[in-house]
Amino acid sequence: MIDESIIRERAYALWEKDACPEDADLFYWFLAREQLETALKRSSVERAVYEGKSLFVSKVAATAGEIKLRLRKRDTA
Asked: What is the domain count for the chain?
């Protein structure tokens, strides 16, 4: 759960960025909450990858010498 004060600050910043439209408080509240929840989920996945708990990063060689990073679930067996 994200603290309401963080959502409020993000919503206010988004509202200001869009030139302070009237009667848009709920729109910016839900937009801010969605953005913060997405960022939280993303950081949780990245943390899991970094710590090696449930995901790992494997390097896969691609054409032209590029290296692509691919996330995949670790086999538990």
From this structure: 1
